[in-house]
Amino acid sequence: MEHPATPPQLSRDLLDMMARGVSVIVSACGHDLTPSVMRALGSQISASGDLVTVYLGRRPSAQLLRDVATSGRMAVVFSEPSSHRTVQLKTRRARLREARPEDAAVLQRYLLAMQQELDRIGFGPAFVSAMFAHPLDDVVAVEFTPDEAFDQTPGPRAGQALGGAVA
Amino acid sequence: MTLVDLAEVRPCLEGAIPAMMATCAADGTPNVAYLSQVFYVDERHVALSFQFFNKTRKNLLAQPRSTVLVLHPQTARFYRLQLRYLRTEDSGPVFESMKAQLAGIASHSGMAHVFRLLGADIHEVCEIERVPCDMPTPLPQAPPRCNLLGALRRGSARLAACTTLDALLDATLQTLEQDLGVAHAMVLILDPLTERLYTVASRGYATSGVGSEIPLGDGVIGVAARERTPVRIMHMTSAYLYSRALRDSLAGEGSTAISTDIPYPGLPEPHSQLAVPLLSAGRVLGVLFVESPLDLQFSFEDEDLLVTLGGQLAAGIDLMQDSAEPCPDAPGTEHTAAPAKAPAGPPLQVRHYRSNDSVFVNNAYLIKGVAGAILWKLLQDGQRQGRHEFTNRELRLDRALRLPDVADNLEARLLLLQRRLAEQCPQLRIEKTGRGCFRFDTAGPVELDDIAG
User: Fold this and answer.
1) Taking CA atoms, which of B192, B267, B301, B358 is between 20 and 30 Å from B343?
2) Beta-ladder partners of B431
3) Contact check, Cβ <8 Å, B67/A35
């Protein structure tokens, strides 16, 4: 398995967007090439962008978590609904861990950010709460360092690799 | 895993919340992307919008399986659809319906400059999973809307009681207004020879627009008729506004340089539109059209209802046509003398242009085409033979009227003429006297001028 020497360079602007709390969709793939997909309950990104954590519900994401555990491969899309600005990260080295008590604050912050973000496009706080409702003991955290990043904002640049990663 | 059928998922496919699509490359690398549209085709198939040549596309062509995540816009419940890609269509009913809908989605989300439908990717729905949820949510589903099936039943009963085309159209518009709260609606009939749709009835507009025409394929109405499919737009889009620039090509012809364009009555800025083709015995007879100045007014449930009601309306239009034989007790072809009427003012000046059968009364455009030819015949027969009673059958047999041998839409043309006269020229009057027969009267003297050009 080949790995790029360095993780893709994400612009400060994109890192800020991801750190703020925007829509996060996670996908993986079974050994029979059946894709699995679910919306994340939250996300966290290190200042440099080399460590990303996404949170998934164990029950709603059962197949997805199995696929990630088996292959380590994962595709994650971060998208700001109000602007359509979208970036996709890919990794071959995703690691699962149990959610810790301190993750609860991350998830709560994320929920508030999403309530604010989705309110701008017409979805009320009750609806957004229902979208992200979960018992904490059902949450699994998936950590990874991105191997590749792609601009996926709809338009002519969509699909372009960011920061010198191999497409 | 809880398996459900596509009916439960239909509210998720209305475009309120974008869907997510996951695919895999042959080497097992996953990919996930937003989808503008997941379009309901039937209980076993959906069509996804193909807008960009991207990784998703590449993966699909190599490996047809995908998983799509959708969100219910009321309950906030997630559903996963396991799909198998079958083919891409770049024309036809599904493509055209999606294209119109996408134009609305694109302009609503500020992406009109980016979103262009390259194709409708038809996928088989292999499995639908209601994503399990541990919490006491999701939110309750919206209560069922004002009993749509009851509304359909009342409409159906109204239509079944009608004995004339006139009444049939009124019953349809009344049902839309009273039972569905639709304030703006019209019915258009297709003239298969000229490939244009003409308005025969409308409700909720400043002017009725009866007689106004739309070319087949133009705007949501023209596309619905051409493709024989419902077309529904839920947001304002300039892409499908009926353009007044498409003026009647006959208007500028030769000496008749006066406009024969009856203004289209539609809303200037519709935000929701739904056009349903009227189909009977495999033919398109016309279009039932509703619109609103507000966003998101017509759901898939309205579409289902209008398609069903439209089916009965179309069958009724056909029935009125087929059974339009003279009734036994009708005066038939009796040549009765014109009732004496006090001549009121100067004679009515009626001019007829043979080139397009357009008729002008006191220099104002009234009607053209087959309806114009019929009016001219009625006026001539009235003047030469003092006739007032006519039958549909004799009009059918009159070669000068150039009615097509099949699907002549005579009833609709007569109704159009009757309504146009009532609105624009009450001195000339058509009145149904029974099934397949009618009376034509003129109030006062008429001067006829036939122009060859």
Assistant:
1) B358
2) B439
3) yes
